[in-house]
Structure formats: structure tokens, C-alpha cells
Amino acid sequence: MHVWKSLSRLLAPTLLLPLLGAAPPAAVPAAKPAPAVTRPSKQYSVEQFMGSTVVMAPVFTSDGKQLLFSSNASGIFNVHSVPVGGGKPTALTRSKTDSIRVVGVFPRDNRFLFERDKGGDEQTHVFVRTPDGKEKDLTPMKKGVAHFLGFSRDDSAFYITTNERDPGAMDVYRHDAKTYARTLLAQNDKGFGVAGVAPDESWVALEEAVTTSDGNVWRYDVATKTLKNLTPHTGTASYRVGDIHPVTGELYVITDDGSEFARVVRPAKEAGKWEEVEKADWDIIATEFSRSGAFRVSLINVNAGIEVRLHDVKAGTQVPLTQLPAGMISEAIFSRDEKQLAVLLETDRSSANLYVQDLATKKTTRVTDTMSRELDSEDLVEAQVVRFKSFDGMEIPNLLFKPHQATAQNKAPAIVYVHGGPGGETTRGYNDFVQYLVNHGYVVLGINNRGSAGYGKAFFKADDQKHGKDPLRDCVEARKYLASLPYVDGSRVAILGGSYGGYMVLAALAFHPDAFDVGVDVFGVSNWLRTLKSMPPEWGAFRQAMMQEIGDPEKQEAMLKEISPLFHADKIKKPLFVVQGANDPRVLQAESDDIVAAVKKNGVPVEYLLLPDEGHGFKKKKNEAEVDRRTLEFLNRHLKPATATAPKP
């Protein structure tokens, strides 16, 4: 996936994770730098990399015979179907302008639900598609956002959340599965996040983000229209919904209260207490039941990767997932009859594919073939987990990608890549853009600076109210680490990032103007005052949580100006490439327009690519290819001046 796409959609929500997401554990030693060996490696064009397909959002049809998923095989995401036994996927939607994400399949027939916005503006509507190919907008609002929440336990209805009543609050509506007639189920006056509906529809689970690292789970009683905080606590602790048991209605919660890492708990017999269900030495980021509750699957964020645990709930045992190739599983979905499990599996050197496993026989079938046929995975590289000590001794984890051709005799230029967030994470898995850069001779260090998810709550909180300072200094120290590697030319190092990572690029160039040689900013924040004030209203209470972490524009104007690159653009003296989506609702186009104009006044080389049909992230292959190509050309011009040529198709 693209460098500025969230690699795990299951991480906690953050302001600037683009769309389509404690001290470091001492038991995991830092990896040694890659040995300085070389091998012949073919160089590929961006078109060859774009030959791979991204698939996501799998869901079984009601009879379990087909798997629906979204795929960008056509150049833009559309819904496809494929038999669970394998075969050629069939396109069910054929949009040429706006990406479509499948979100649900009707339990008793072949209708399905999908979401679509316009040009990446995130004003999402929910549509139904019938077997005859007709599509109907179930949320025909003139202005607002809608999302599918799930089907009722008895299959007679489904739930959709919208902010049409109040832009700052997502209410829950119950839609009749036959007529689509709707009734208001829960009015969300507090603007909390909506997590789920109880099987008997008597209550709705809501999530309150007090800060980005502190939160509560609330119960909204449908009959009385009252709210109850189910997770009162002292100190900073995250509480969020894992799942609601589909039969008993028992609430399973993910929390880090009293521990460094998130674990799964459920209500104990003693009122107000919690019973331990599952824990790990890392964060459990998701847990979900099969339809009857016979199985529960959990995803664990382990050392920049994701591990899966499948539980047989009745037997109380963990079921090994066998006959699957080695790799990282980022999604796991049960069939309605609980006989099959679909997973999305990828490696550092191969794009994500969908596999279907028969849970009884363990027979496993790969049902997609997404890797570009023009790419040889042997020419791509594995990521290494490495750590270095930052300016204050804090250990910083990273993923290091070393080109095959880089040696002590043939030193390569390098890139510090900063993820989105704050609170995102650079994780393992297939990243076509990183592989493209590495394939063209760049060492890439994907930094998980302090404030990144996945390394405990103390590490996650370490950037609060310190943006533009301590986490930025981690990036500066990353350059020093790269320069210490025998195969890196320490005089040619770029910083590159998207979203919050784009802010870090601009901040590095403004506040540490000699630290990097060039910067690539993809829809990054230049003015925190404007970005914080313009956060999308549908984020509700989460808006205040972001201000708690970064700063309050009403109360901390001076501090936010101090850390906003726009007000210090006169200090930027290194070449800059800026990319922006015109429809971006999170980082407005003005953020990029203004920084480009300001830096140009310095006489600094600045290139600007504005994409008229994208938002906060890329949903069209043609745009990805253009950004990839332009980025490589920019880096080559400034870091490889003697050999600066555009890659041949």
C-alpha cells in the first residue's frame, strides 16, 4: 500500500491518518544492520508497480459461496465477487469517478451495501445494490456523513449512523431490511463515537475520547434515552469497545487501564469490576465474534506487525491457523454459518491477497491474485526492525528497507519516512511506494517516533503537547542513525511523509533547516491553528481530544504558532515537493497553497502537485502513479544529480 495510507485500519482513530492505519519492550533486541552484500536486481517502472491490485473489506455472501471485496483493479475501487473455491473475480460495480467500499451483505439474499463519497471529500453516503444491478442511496442528505453500522440480530433490520440532525453528532437509525423505512434508535447528543447495538436493541454502545490516550465506554438506554458511563476510572486509561457478544449481549472491552498494553476484558460478577479475557505482551487492537459467538478472533500489534489469535469460545482453546503462507494478516472475517474464515494476508515483498480457510478441514484457498506479473518478489526487499537511541536515550523503533545494490563501496542516499497520525504507526506489509523507492536505490527508514501506536501507552503519550519538538528530534536523530550505516551516504538524506508525516517534513525543514537535504510533504499541516479549527464536525467529541494532545487554538495560540511551519517558512532553505488533494477535508488545500507560496519567497526550489479529484489520501491509481513518479524524479534531481533521469517505462 502507499506510504501515506494507513497500514492498519484497526488502529485508534487519529486526526491525520490518511484514508484509502511505555518504554519499548526490552525483550526485543535491536536488529543488526543488514549485511553489506549485493545481488543483481532488476529496476522497475512505476507502471510495473501499479500493475499490482489493492483488495480490502472482504465479506461473505449470505450462502457462504462467494466473497465480496473492494478492489482497485480498474484503477479505482469497485466491488467484486469471487467464489470461495477460487476463480476469476467479477466486477459488481463499475464506478469510474468515485471509489466504492463494500460494507455489508444482506443475510437472506444477494443485496449488498456500499459506501461512496465524492472525490475523496469524506461526505460518505450508504447505498444498496440489488441483484439486478440497481443502486439506491439510502442516505440522500444534501449535506452530511453516513456510515453502515451492522445488521440486527434477527436480520430484520440494519443500522446506519448519520450527522444530518447535528453536524457534530452521529445518530443511529434503524432501517427495515425490506422497505428501508427508518426510525431513530439513538440520538447521540454528546457526539460520542458509535460502536455497536445490543442484540435485543435495548442499548447502544458509545465511545468517548477524553484525550487520544484516555477514553470511556458509555451505554445509551434506548427506552429511557439515558446515558451511563460503564468505565469510570482514575488516571489516564483507554477504554473502547471490542465487540458485543451476538447472543448474550455481553460487552467485551479493550483497555490499557492498569497495564502498559491493551487487553480484552468483560464485566465481572461483582458490579463495577472487570474480568480478564485475553492479554498479550503487546497491544490487542481488535477482537470480534462469529455470528453465534462460537469463535472469537483477535488482532495483536506485535513489533510493527499484526498477529492473529483464533479462539474456540466453548472449548476455551486457541485454534491454530494452519495451511496459510507466512505473512501478516490484517483482516479476518467469518462466514455467516461460521464454517469459513477469510483473511487478508500480505508480506513485505508481496501484495495483500484474500484467503478462505475451511475451519473444519483447514483447507485453504487463495481467491485473489493481486501481485503485478511484471514484478519479481526477489528483486524487492524485506524490512528489518531496528532501534536507535534518541537525544534523551529513549529507544526509537523503526523499519529499515535496504536496496540490494547498496554496499560500503556503493553507498546509497536515504529517506526518513514519517507516518501519519499523530498516533499512527509504520507497520510491516506490502508498501508499493517504499519498494519503488528502494528498488531505485534509496535506503528507507520508516520511523516510529515517540507518540506512535503499538509500543505501550507511555510511548504513545510521549508526544502530547510536544509536537514539533521531541518527536521531531527523533526524526533528526534518525538521520544520524542512517549515516552510521556503512552502505548509506550520510550527505544525501531526505525526509518524506504524508498527513501528520507531512507536517513533520515541513517542521524539520523549518526548525532544523540543516538536518535534511530535501523534503517531500504530502497533504501535511503547515498551520495548526487553521487545521484544528477546521476539523470535520462529524468527529464530534474527538475534536476536543485532538486539541488536548496538540493544543487548543483558542487558549494556546502562541504555542501553536511556534510549532506551525507556516509562521517560520523564512527559515526553509532546502528543496521541497508538496502534494495536495483539492477535496481534502482534514488538511485543507490552503495549508499547502500557503506553505508553497511562503517558501518560494526564499528562492528555494519548490514543486507543487495539486490533485483535483482526491481528498486525504489516494483512491485512484493514476494519481498514485503520478505522485510516485514525480517524487522519484524530485529526489533524483536533488540527491542523485549526476544520474538524474526519469525511470524508463
UniProtKB/TrEMBL annotation:
The keyword Ubl conjugation does not apply. Residues 1-22 form the signal peptide. Gene3D superfamilies: alpha/beta hydrolase, TolB, C-terminal domain. GO terms for molecular function: serine-type endopeptidase activity. It comes from the Bacteria. Keywords: Acetylation, Hydrolase, Signal. InterPro entries: 6-blade_b-propeller_TolB-like, AB_hydrolase_fold, Pept_S9_AS, Peptidase_S9_cat, Peptidase_S9A. SUPFAM superfamilies: alpha/beta-Hydrolases (SSF53474), Tricorn protease domain 2 (SSF69322). Residues 434-640 form the Peptidase S9 prolyl oligopeptidase catalytic domain. Pfam families: Peptidase_S9. One of its GO terms (biological process) is proteolysis. PROSITE patterns: PRO_ENDOPEP_SER. This enzyme catalyzes the hydrolysis of the N-terminal peptide bond of an N-acetylated peptide to generate an N-acetylated amino acid and a peptide with a free N-terminus. It preferentially cleaves off Ac-Ala, Ac-Met and Ac-Ser. Also, involved in the degradation of oxidized and glycated proteins. PANTHER family: DIPEPTIDYL PEPTIDASE FAMILY MEMBER 6, SERINE PEPTIDASE S9 FAMILY MEMBER. This is Acyl-peptide hydrolase.
